[in-house]
Amino acid sequence: MGLNRRNALRAAAALGAAVPLAACDSPATWTPAPSPAGGTPPSTGPTSPNPSPTSSTLALPAEVVHGPRDRPNVALTFHGQGDPAMVTALLGELERGGARVTVLAVGSWLAAQPAMAKRILDGGHELGNHTQNHVGIAKLPAAKAYAEIEDCAAVLKRLTGSIGRWFRPSQIQYSTPQIRAQATKAGYPTCLAYDLDTLDYTDPGAGAVTHNTLTAVQNGSVVSMHCGHAQTVTAIPAILDGLRQRGLRAVTMTELMS
């Protein structure tokens, strides 16, 4: 068994819970699929078509791009920073629609707005790591990339008691080998990418955000969205209604991969 796989198994077993700029599916039978340094998406398809939803020791690949395609769940994942009032409004719309999401927080933002950590978790959502300063992490030397991940992890640990299960690199859709190595060193053996970009960070209008989401969403989609954008808040009710019409549930990343 390789080192990355051992680390993934240990980390998955030990975990009990867990910006606007664009640019890491998963039972124990899945294997890490590294992506090239240029950021090309890895293969993330399962080798077993019927993963057990009750497994408590999931082994995840080095990067997750989407979840299982045979279950009607999707994960709305939010790059976490922005005006706290707008983030609170976003969370309210999600909760009224019965959605639970994953917020990948920028550490410097969360440190400046510590009450947001409790607000996110109290809403049934989960928190993850989106680097400390939301810099172009793929361009950093290894030591600085590690510091970006580790500093955000320290903020999460201080505010919530956990570093969270998920790490998403900043300003890049797919991780690189160096990013994955530094993430693993910081306690995140799996990086979180996504297969559906709503482009909401470009502020194209609430209708466009809704259209971009609903025309491409499918079972297992990991959807990239952003806190701190009024058009995204406005789009949420229509997005959630469209998901329901398609028989899809908006769940956290941990539930998506369970």
CATH superfamily name? Glycoside hydrolase/deacetylase
Query: Could you name the CATH topology?
Result: TIM Barrel
Class inferred from helices and paired strands = alpha/beta
Q: What's the CATH class label?
A: Alpha Beta
Distance between the ends: 22 Å
| Percent of residues in β-strands | 5-15%
Main β-sheet: number of strands, strand sense, barrel status?
Answer: 6 strands, parallel
Strand tally, please?
Answer: 8
Folded structure, characterized:
The protein has helices spanning 3-14, 84-96, 107-112, 115-122, 142-160, 177-185, 206-214, 230-245, 253-256; strands at residues 63-64, 73-80, 102-105, 126-129, 191-192, 196-197, 222-226, 249-251. Helix content is 37%, strand content 12%. α2 (84-96) runs parallel beside α8 and α7 packs parallel to α8. The strands form two sheets. Strands 2, 3, 4, 6, 7 and 8 form a six-stranded parallel beta sheet that branches. It has one domain (3-9, 67-256): Glycoside hydrolase/deacetylase (TIM Barrel, Alpha-Beta Barrel). The longest helix has 19 residues, at 142-160.
Give me some keywords for this one.
two-stranded parallel ribbon; six-stranded parallel sheet; TIM Barrel; single chain; 8 strands; disordered N terminus; 258 residues; alpha/beta
